[in-house]
Amino acid sequence: MTSEAAALAGKEHSGPGFWSSFADNERWLWPAMLAPAVLYIVLLVGFPFFLSIYYSFTDVTVGGRDLHFVGLQNFNRILESSTFWLALKNTIILTVISQVCILVMASILAQALSVNFRGKWLVRLLILLPWVAPIALGSIGWLWIFDSIYSVINWTGRAIGILGPNDWPIWLGQPNLAMASIIIVQIWRILPLATVIILAGLTSIPQDLHDAAAVDGAGPFRRYFQITAPLIRPITLVAVLFGIIFTFTDLIVVFVLTRGGPYDQTQVLATWAYFTGIQGGDLAGGAAISLFLFPVLVAVAIIFLRFARRTEVL
User: Fold this and answer.
1) What are the tens digits of pLDDT across the range 14-41?
2) Is domain 82-313 classified as CATH 1.10.3720.10?
C-alpha cells in the first residue's frame, strides 16, 4: 500500500470533523442559525424599544444632562392634545384606505402575472421597481409630481382637457388632496410587495383544481371566489399585515411630502413623534407618542395571524 492510499484509508476510518459533527447536531445547529437574527432584533429593535419605554416615564430632553422620573405625565399630556387624536385618526384613515386599494389591485396584478405572456419578465421588473427603489428617493420624485407649479399631473390634465384654464389643484396644500396624495404614494410603495406575496400563493395552487373546475363548467369568477380566494386567504392576510405595519409606522412619505401640513391635517403618529422628540427636543414626549403604535400593531398582528391560522386549518 502506498503512502497516499494509507493516508486516504486513515481519513476514512477517522471520525467526522468538528464542522461535520456540528452540522449534524440539531441541538446546536438551530440555535447557531437563529443567533444572527436574534442578535439583530435585540440590538436594532429591542434596545431602542426598551430605551423608549424608559424615556417615556422621564423628562429627558435633547441635550439635557439630567432626567427625572415623572410617571405617566407624558402620556396624560399627549392624550389631552388635540394633535394626538388628529394624528391617530389620520394614521387609521391612511392605513385602511391604502390597504383596501392595495389588496384589490394586488389581487388583480397577481392574477394577470400568473398567466404566461410575452414580456412577462419586463412587467414583473417594472412592478417591483417601486419596492426596490429607496423610499426617500421615490418620495422626492412624487414631491415633484405633486408640485404646486410644475405638477406633471396638472399640466397633463390641462393638456388633455380634464382641467380647465382656471383649475389648478394644489395637491400638497389642500388637506383632502394632501391626504389623497399620501395615500397614492403609499399604494405605489407597498403594492409590489403585496403583489409578489399573493403571486407566490397563486403559484402554489395545483393546476389540477382549476382544470377540474373548468371541466365541471365553473367560470373564471366562480373559480376565483370558490377555489383561488379561499386557498390564498392565509397568505393574503400576511400580505395585508405587512402592509398595515409598513404604513402605520411610516415616517418618510409624510415627512417628505407635507411634513404633516397643512396645519397638521396630514400629521400621523410617526411624524408627530419625530417632530416632538427630535425637532422639538422633547425626547420623553416623542418616546411616549411612539409607544402608542406598539399596542395597536400587536393587536392587529395577533388578530390577523390567528385568523390566517384558522383559515389555513379549515
Assistant:
1) 445 555 665 566 677 777 778 888 888 8
2) yes
